[in-house]
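Quick start: load a record and inspect it. Here is Annexin:
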Amino acid sequence: MRTTSGEIVETLPRSFQVHSKICMELMRILDDIMRIFPDIEDARPKCSSGIESLVYLNNSIQKAKLLLQHCSECSKLYLAVTGDTVLLRFQKAKKSLEQSLIPIQSMVPVVLAVERLVHLWALESAERDAFLANEATKKWTSSNQVLVEIACTRSSDQLFSAKKAYHVLYKKSIEEDVAHHTTGDYRKLLLPLVSSHRYEGDEVNLTIAKAEAKILHEKISKKAYNDDDLIRILATRSKAQVNATLNHYKDAFGKDINKDLKEDPKDEFLSLLRSTVKCLTRPEKYFAKIVRLSINKHGTDEGALTRVVATRAEIDLKIVADEYQRRDSVPLDRAIVKDTTGDYEKMLLALLGHNDA
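Running the structure step on this input writes:
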């Protein structure tokens, strides 16, 4: 069967494009000549000049065949010297390098985590929150929930102190940075959250709770998740009032608000709204989930684990640990021992209250 130029292209490496074009052109000419050569020979003239021309043509064909064979051999030699052999050696060297980097790659995050844990723990709580908030704004992504954590799990006085520390450390307000680094619905939610100064008392107004539960349900039913009233309720009401409103929401409409906010599990703004609700109403449950996600079969998220332990150690880490065990049926200290090593493990356990570990 006659070889086509298209088939030759498919068998030649892309790096030999120019060389392959020469070979293809030569093959095409040779193919054409070989195809018509029998016809020429049948009709060849009986004169000596015609015979000489055919002999010359035949010699040219033979030379073309030899040249094509030479090109093929050159291609193989070129591949052996600079192509496949070099690529194979490179792949072997790369694999060897990657294998040698595995222990280093696993060690570096742990070393950095130890340094970060020491750094965070050495800071006063207000400075620590200011540092984390500044880091969150500079590296902000729509999935970053640190600003919500700080705004919604701290008391009004703690948040106010963090904002003062932020101003001293970074010569600007946290509101300025949030406004600068966030956009759209995220800015619309986060700005009032970090600006808020909530009432900290236990008193609630049940009439307001019922009215605002209805507002929340109406807005969520219409998927108006960025509605001004919805954000106002979550950003300004006291935590006791928010709890009363959401309890009435569940009683009146038969479903927890966070389940209604899971309309689209992949929507990161809805995820931020759910985190806002959980941080305001059940912070220990929120932090237990962060810890659970940071310790999983895919590897440890040292950043999240370090942040939770460092920021909650003096507040409610024992409650977070109890919630973790209730949900996962494994003590948090055992999970940490299983998932961490060395000084990092020892420091985490010490902050958990296991100083003899």
